[in-house]
Design goal:
Elements lengths: L1 E4 L21 H15 L5 E4 L9 H10 L3 E5 L17 E5 L1 E6 L2 E6 L20 E5 L6 H13 L3 E3 L6 E3 L4 E3 L12 H13 L17
Parallel strand pairs: 1-2, 2-3, 3-4, 6-7, 7-10
Antiparallel strand pairs: 5-6, 8-9
């Protein structure tokens, strides 16, 4: 089974009080909870793609310690806070691969993997013969900030446009499937693509501009 998750920010105690306001008593308590949540779902044989910002600590040995506690085969899309990657003490063998961007197949669908949201992504117009989207853009970085509201608004507007289907006179709406795999949206549990699709649909139906009117000054750095 393959799972996805973004912006865990292990060791980032500041997120308990600012921006995310995660509410844990300490960074250590947050780490322990996220490890438990991860291992409650992921088995040693499973795959997990981390969409950036895995650990805030620049110390390679700290990242090593946490990675050793997590089940599964791990893959990393590099985020802007993954500074431990340049530490001489970090062991890259904890990841099957490390990349800034990837395109993969997931049950006959394409997934575009990037820490940063890509508004015009490869395959964004593609649907199958039954009209179901064939490509999904999975991202992180923006957490649950005003930037996420802007991305939602972009998707809403884009889906109102129609494009002609190749080889046909028919015009259909643009799918525009961008999914924020922010860890707090799944209670820190890695999810499958199908699970993220359902979580994303439900969450975006409930998004309101008023939820984002008051933003933290740290939002620009994520």
């Amino acid at each position: 089974m393959r799972y996805y998750i973004a912006d865990l920010h292990f060791c980032h105690d500041n997120l308990n009080h600012h921006m995310d306001c995660r509410g844990f008593a300490s960074g250590e308590a947050m780490n322990e909870h996220m490890i438990r949540q991860w291992n409650s779902r992921v088995r040693p044989v499973d795959e997990v793609v981390i969409l950036g910002d895995f650990c805030i600590s620049p110390k390679g040995e700290e990242a090593n310690r946490i990675l050793a506690c997590l089940n599964g085969k791990k893959y990393l899309i590099i985020g802007n806070h993954d500074k431990y990657l340049s530490s001489k003490d970090f062991n890259p063998k904890y990841f099957k691969w490390i990349a800034p961007y990837r395109e993969m197949k997931d049950n006959k669908r394409k997934v575009i993997l990037s820490h940063y949201p890509i508004l015009c992504y490869n395959g964004q117009y593609r649907r199958d013969s039954e009209g179901v989207p064939k490509t999904y853009m999975l991202y992180g970085h923006v957490h649950n900030t005003f930037d996420e509201y802007l991305i939602n608004d972009f998707q809403r507007q884009t889906r109102q446009y129609q494009r002609q289907v190749r080889g046909s006179e028919e015009k259909i709406p643009i799918p525009c499937q961008m999914i924020n795999c922010f860890c707090m949206f799944s209670d820190y549990v890695p999810l499958t693509l199908d699970e993220w699709i359902e979580v994303d649909k439900k969450r975006r139906r409930e998004l309101r501009r008023s939820d984002y009117e008051v933003s933290d000054v740290q939002d620009s750095d994520h």
